[in-house]
Amino acid sequence: MELFPKHIKLDGQLVEVKELLKQADTKADWEKNSLEFLEEWYNNADFIEAKTSGSTGEPKTIRLKKDFVAASAKRTLAFFKLEENDKVLHCLPSRFIAGKLMTVRALIGKLDLKIVDPATDFKFLNAKSFKFAAVVPNQMIKLLNPQLATRNLQLVLIGGSSIPQSLEEKLRSVPVQCYSSYGMTETATHIAIRKVNGVSPDKFYHCLENIHVEISEDDCLQIHMPGLEQPLKTTDMAELKNSETFRILGRADHIIISGGIKYFPEEIEKKLEPHIKLPFYISSLSDDKLGQQIVMYVEAVETPEIKDHLAKTMSVYLSKFEQPRQILFKNLFNRTLNGKLIRL
Q1: What CATH number labels 7-251?
Q2: Is the pLDDT of residue 54 over 80?
Q3: Which of 1, 15, 135, 173 has the fewest C-beta atoms lying within 10 Å of its C-beta?
Q4: Nearest to 164, CA basis, from 340, 344, 342
């Protein structure tokens, strides 16, 4: 597969990359971002730069070798059986690695790429169909609008953050084949994929070709893959079926030890998400007796009615010791540029 072809197919039209780059000044900001990456891909450097999300600390810029990025693109092409001229939808910001990879997949696989504003309402789906699209959870929620012809999407890869339990339940009844991805900027997007609906939905992620994982001494996932000089240790605590199959339990830096028992906030949140419509997350505060006490943060203005509803919901769906001891309200949560929640 050629990494730097002279042409790219955009919405059915074969366009010379060199000529496309000349149009940058006339484009909207989201289009300029796509062209800026395209220019970076074709420059003389053997690497691209990508920003980490910032959900676990300050965002940082890292360098990824172009052949490492291309290998990631090839694995996705192979897994989803994407072939030349297949129509694919690019609706992710090209400032981040997931958006950059959509362009690389199209170039290497000679796909027919349609690039749209990430803030799109997806109404064009009523007139156009695509074999593959990659989206974030908020976009997937938009796609569930009953007025949209979601049948015009064949395969959807959902990434960027974990899929809320309430959304995953809704996906079980849609005709589109939906997959969840696990990966990060450092791995040039996903290293593993999980099917979330259809005939055989799965709770476990399955590694892509030539990738395997293990558990470190502190129970965190370590990734082995071609192009990494040493295993990449994550802060995600995981359970392994084998070296290529795993599920994520929660972040090591989120874990709560209350009364000597470990609690994973993400696991508690999954139990509550289908029943609470307001944005919320589970965290902890120090406690003289317990070490840490479990608390809930809610993005809302506090009212007795909301507080009562939350308390009743927790009493029904959580065990006694999982139930937060306090409900704390915030007008607005902090989020990263690509929408990930920043926990306190």
Answers
A1: 3.40.50.12780
A2: no
A3: 173
A4: 340
